[in-house]
């Protein structure tokens, strides 16, 4: 379980957002979660960020999170390197471990009932092209609110400059503004079941560049 935010003046405001989001997540039915997850994953799959990625890092979803298994399976099908988070060092740090399948021989449930790799090689952070990032909430500036442990903030802070982090959530988890602190690390873009936003309009990673229309001949 994630530790609470420490010495963060915005802790109370963050926890208020977490409480509100958890109530809404708890109210989702399995059918709604599956349908909305499929819509969000479809946006990821058609994005240039995913299509061009050689190595993709994803998470093994909790019941309250977007189910990204469709992205995992498509990444396997396309021959991409797939890795998932693994928390070590006394639950203080997180690194990426490669997975090659989702069968029972390769994966085991952790204390939360989430599939985790039994073993696997550690993937260097500078080899990861795309990190699909969960969150309790995101905002329109692509700021992210996690569970409070800071694992993704510390991990993303050390990411290679070419690595792209895309948050994924249900649309009601995308709010106007999240209270942020110095250690919080935003993502490059956020995808929901209804829309996609990017932190920088000048560097699109979700929308394929529009091809200019050929000029019509005037007959000359």
* Order of strands across the main sheet: 6-3-2-1-7-10-12-13
Percentage of residues in strands: 15-25%
Mean pLDDT, as a whole number? 87
What general form does the structure show? globular
How many distinct beta strands? 13
Number of helices: 5
How many discrete domains?
Answer: 1
Radius of gyration, whole Å = 18 Å
Corresponding CATH superfamily: NagB/RpiA/CoA transferase-like
**Might you state the CATH topology name?**
Rossmann fold
Give a written overview of the molecule.
There is one protein chain. The chain is α/β, with parallel strands linked by helices and 220 residues long. It has one domain: 3-Layer(aba) Sandwich (Rossmann fold), CATH 3.40.50.10420. 25% of the residues lie in helices and 22% in strands. The strands form three sheets. Strands 6-3-2-1-7-10-12-13 form an eight-stranded mixed β-sheet. The protein has a three-stranded mixed β-sheet with strand order 9-8-11, with helices on one face. A hairpin with a 4-residue loop joins strand 2 and strand 3 (93-99). The chain is globular, with a radius of gyration of 18 Å. Residues 211-220 have low confidence and may be disordered.
What tags apply to this protein structure?
disordered C terminus; alpha/beta; 25% helix; 3-stranded mixed beta sheet; 220 residues; globular; Rossmann fold; 13 strands; single chain
């Amino acid at each position: 379980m994630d530790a609470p935010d420490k010495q963060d003046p915005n802790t109370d405001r963050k926890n208020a957002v977490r409480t509100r989001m958890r109530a809404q997540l708890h109210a989702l039915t399995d059918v709604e979660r599956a349908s909305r997850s499929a819509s969000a994953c479809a946006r990821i799959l058609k994005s240039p960020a995913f299509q061009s990625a050689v190595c993709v890092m994803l998470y093994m979803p909790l019941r309250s999170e977007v189910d990204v298994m469709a992205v995992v399976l498509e990444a396997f099908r396309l021959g991409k390197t797939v890795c998932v988070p693994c928390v070590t060092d006394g639950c203080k740090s997180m690194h990426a471990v490669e997975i090659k399948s989702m069968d029972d021989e390769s994966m085991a449930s952790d204390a939360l009932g989430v599939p985790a790799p039994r073993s696997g090689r550690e993937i260097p952070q500078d080899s990861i092209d795309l990190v699909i990032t969960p969150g309790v909430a995101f905002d329109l500036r692509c700021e992210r609110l996690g569970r409070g442990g800071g694992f993704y903030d510390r991990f993303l802070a050390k990411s290679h400059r070419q690595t792209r982090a895309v948050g994924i959530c249900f649309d009601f988890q995308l709010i106007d503004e999240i209270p942020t602190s110095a250690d919080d690390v935003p993502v490059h873009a956020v995808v929901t079941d209804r829309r996609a936003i990017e932190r920088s309009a000048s560097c699109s990673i979700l929308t394929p560049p529009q091809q200019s229309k050929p000029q019509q001949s005037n007959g000359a």
